[in-house]
Amino acid sequence: MPDFLDYCRKAFRWQHGRQGSGYDKMLLLTASWPIAFDSYLIRYPIGSSIPPHTDPVTGRNHYRLNIIVKRSIGGGEFICSDPILSTARIKLFRPDRSEHSVTEVIGSSRYVLSLGWLWGKSDC
Predict the structure, then answer these.
(1) 3-state DSSP assignment of residue 63
(2) For 35-60, what is each residue's pLDDT tens digit?
């Protein structure tokens, strides 16, 4: 029950992103079983960016699929050291293994639908 109450407090509300770099995230859906996953709508206002980093996870493999819903006029480019798939609007990568970042957003905000999940036992 505490997980559900925590979800109700966070779902469908804008929250500041973890890196403190100006982006906001809105939790859409999450679960821990049968596959641990989360889904967010991410808003990058003008001037926001994300510095290069990884997202370590203990004991599991972390995957993330980012779908660019709205591009910014300039900047806001996703940079990843080792993507699994990278097209103009679709980015599939391992945030636990691949350093990734977003360049500064210029001219208009950028929106991304982000789906993440943990799978199997860590291969690191």
Answers:
(1) strand
(2) 999 999 999 999 999 999 999 999 99
Report pTM: 0.90
User: Going by DSSP bridges, is the β-strand pair 37-44/50-53 parallel, antiparallel, or unpaired?
Assistant: unpaired
Q: Which two three-digit tokens encode residue 39? A: 């889904």
Residues contacting residue 68 through CB under 8 Å, at least 6 positions apart: 78, 88, 89, 90, 91, 110, 111, 112
CATH, residue 6: 2.60.120.10
Rounded distance between C-alpha atoms, residue 84 and residue 80, angstroms: 10
Pairing label, strands 90-93, 50-53:
unpaired
